[in-house]
Amino acid sequence: MAVRLDEMDRKILAELQEDASQSLDEIARKVGSSKTPVWNRIRRMREAGVITRQTAVLDPEALGLEACFFVLIRTSEHEAEWQKKFLAALRARPEVLEAHRLAGDIDYILKVRVKNARAYDTFYQALISEVRIYNVTALLSMEEIKSTTMLPV
Amino acid sequence: MAVRLDEMDRKILAELQEDASQSLDEIARKVGSSKTPVWNRIRRMREAGVITRQTAVLDPEALGLEACFFVLIRTSEHEAEWQKKFLAALRARPEVLEAHRLAGDIDYILKVRVKNARAYDTFYQALISEVRIYNVTALLSMEEIKSTTMLPV
DNA sequence: CCTGAAAACAGACCCCC
DNA sequence: GGGGGTCTGTTTTCAGG
Questions:
Q1: Is A113–B151 a contact, with Cβ atoms under 8 angstroms apart?
Q2: Which nucleotides of chain C are near protein (any atom < 7 Å from a CB)?
Q3: Are A62 and B68 within 8 A, CB to CB?
Q4: Keywords, A to Z (chains A, B) (predicted)?
Q5: What is the pLDDT of residues B89-143, one digit of tens each?
Q6: Helix or strand (DSSP H, E) at B92
Q7: Which residue is nearest to nucleotide C2 (CA to C1')?
Q8: Lowest CB count within 10 Å: A66, A92, A93, A150, which one?
Q9: So what CATH class is B61-140?
Q10: Positive or negative: CA dihedral A37, A39, A44, A48
Q11: In CATH, which of 3.40.50.620, 3.20.20.100, 2.60.40.1180, 1.10.10.10 is domain A7-47?
């Protein structure tokens, strides 16, 4: 999965992360190249899977999604069948923006975006009724200090 | 900050989140409208701040960023001066993808993307040498079950 | 691997409904 | 507020160095 990227590739990626709506000419100018080579590099990185897709970033507050929770989950179940069901449940729920299986005594962490605390409770009740969970801690975000999709390239 | 959005707006947002490189005609066809109204709605939502920006989503693994940590931070310091310095430090570090101030006994949570455990340690040492922190727990992600930028609209 | 031209295409803005 | 057309600029392709 590792792809060789040179300095020029990285500059292009930085520009595309910053603003993917820029024209090729603009990107080419900024990275000190010209249209066609930039275009070829972008195509190559798309094909290599470095660039996954292009998306519009929305403001959660403007959409009324004003509550953000990080959910720490411990479970007593470690069978394949249970895990499969749990993962499917997480993937199916659009309010779950992130889900990771962890090393250590906490088994999973979720990032959940909802309208308010009440909506979180609805989500939580639905989740625990679907799959057996041993222990849950919800951390409520008071302030989003930083939230970026931009990876260091 | 709350904006009135109708069903058509939400459909357009869903399409733009799914794939922002689609043409207006394509989006118009999918949502059952035509070019101009779709374009006007997009412009309105951009101006209202619902659509923040447009970005290329990159694959962290392909970039060699194979380690992801969630960092739980407790601090004994709650002065404005300390907090200002801490926030600035987080914002300045590109490996910190998310940072939230929390309610409850854990004060902050970070999401940190790095090459490996060693790179995390470098980050960690740099951070604690910059600002005084009382207690840190790092949760290592073993598996990214889900990671999406798509908000439920 | 780059330059430059050319063709296909989509975005931005018009007027009319 | 939606529909259709048009101009302009951008993407994509390709020939040639």
A1: yes
A2: 1-5, 9-15
A3: no
A4: DNA-binding, Transcription, Transcription regulation
A5: 999 999 999 999 999 999 999 999 999 999 999 999 999 999 999 999 999 999 9
A6: helix B80-92
A7: A37
A8: A92
A9: alpha beta
A10: positive
A11: 1.10.10.10
Measured between alpha carbons, how far is B84 from B148 in angstroms, rounded to an integer?
Answer: 30
- For residue B21, list chain A residues with Cβ-Cβ distance below 8 A: 20, 53-54
Q: Which of A86, A118, A25 is nearest to B143 (CA)?
A: A86
- At residue A1, the pLDDT reads 58
Q: Which pTM value belongs to this model?
A: 0.94
**Each residue's pLDDT tens digit, B45-91:** 999 999 999 999 999 999 999 999 999 999 987 789 999 999 999 99
Tokens read off for B22: 């689609």
Residues 86-125 of B with CB under 8 A from A: 87, 90-91, 94-104, 106, 108-109, 111, 113
Tokens of B61: 């693994």
Which residue is nearest to the C1' sugar atom of D10, using CA? A23
* Structural domain spans, chain B: 7-47, 61-140
CA distance A61 to A43: 34
Task: Scan for tokens 């970005």, then name that residue.
Answer: B55
